[in-house]
Amino acid sequence: MLQACLNGARPLGSHPALPVSPAQLAADAAKVAELGVTALHLHPRDLVGLEVLAGPEVATTVSVVRAAVPGVEIGVATGAWIRPDPVRRAELVAGWAGLAAGRPDVASVTVHEDGWSEVCAALHQAGIGIELGVFHGEAARALAAAGPPPGTRRVSAGVRPGPDPIPRAEALLSVLEPLGLPVLLHGEDDTAWPVLGHAGRLELDTRIGLEDTLHLPDGTPARDNAALVTLARRTLRNLGVR
Length: 242
Prior knowledge:
The protein contains eight helices and eight strands, in the order E-H-E-H-E-H-E-H-E-H-E-H-E-H-E-H.
């Protein structure tokens, strides 16, 4: 699976084609779905472009995108940077149970954040799948010790910017793969393309989009999400991944 991560937490103005509004996200979702993407990861925003967990804004974004790409998995973020108070964060997520057509299919939960297990429990109770975000060895080991919470669909293993991305990816995988869950392996910024290629060689799920990188492998700015997905699919095909 190639997931498209369309906007992330990038600030307004960080890229001329960064989708922020529901309509912009829906337009980009339609373009990447035409290229074969079957899963999306979005960060819903309010009217001034700030990330939100409140039900009305989440529901608006999800329902508008879903209307544009019916049948595509829609995932959203629950990061602590959006709502630092872990109790309030779990309460807001629990409220997504009643969002009907605006309820996301899956939501990411970052394992090293305070209150991550409570957010997972709220998502499971709301009938929303869980994508566990793991970004370093300590978080991977904590997850291995605790075990995957009920409702977990996959682990998203992210390799942060810096040197030696492949050894760091392998270190994460050595802890996560024994859990028996599907692993989506991806990088960020300067690790995005090397790790995508490594995921392809290992036949693991991966992702690409303006959340993870603003550039093509040669360093030139990417035109938009569709350009990133087009090149990612070509890269994976050249590695024998269909």
